[in-house]
Amino acid sequence: MTNDCFVSQEATDEILLRVTNVCGECYDDLELGNMIHYDMQNYRYLCDCCQQKLCSRMNEACEIVREEDTGLFC
Q1: How far apart are CA 45 and CA 48, in angstroms?
Q2: CB atoms within 10 A of CB 1
Q3: How far apart are CA 66 and CA 57, in angstroms?
Q4: 40 and 62 in contact (C-beta within 8 Å)?
Q5: Are 62 and 56 in contact (CB under 8 A)?
Q6: 62 and 1 Cβ atoms separated by less than 8 Å
Q7: pTM, entire model
Q8: pLDDT of residue 4
């Protein structure tokens, strides 16, 4: 599933300087040489931690699966 939802690669100078140097979810710094993941559904780079969290909530079609509603207005 993760291969269809994300493109994983090592952070390069080009990406960090020309595209982004922060995670699109938590806004933590992306460091040169770290593994980063491009979210194909939301068009953003994610750190390893955020990619794993998002991946755990996705189905095979790369859709976020809602957990049970927690209240009347959710």
Answers
A1: 10
A2: 11
A3: 8
A4: yes
A5: no
A6: yes
A7: 0.81
A8: 82
What whole-number distance in Å separates Cα of residue 46 and Cα of residue 27?
9
Give the span between the Cα atoms of 65 and 9, in whole angstroms: 25
Closest by alpha carbon to 46, among 65, 55, 57? 55
pLDDT tens-digit series, residues 2-43: 468 999 999 999 999 999 999 999 999 999 999 999 999 999
Run of H or E residues at 54: helix 48-56
- Residues 47 and 36: beta-carbon distance below 8 Å: yes
Give tens-digit pLDDT for 40-59: 999 999 999 999 999 999 88
| Chain position carrying tokens 């593994």 | 35
Name, in order, each residue with C-beta under 8 angstroms of 13's C-beta and a sequence gap of 6 or more.
Answer: 32
Q: Are strands 44-46 and 6-10 parallel, antiparallel or unpaired?
A: unpaired
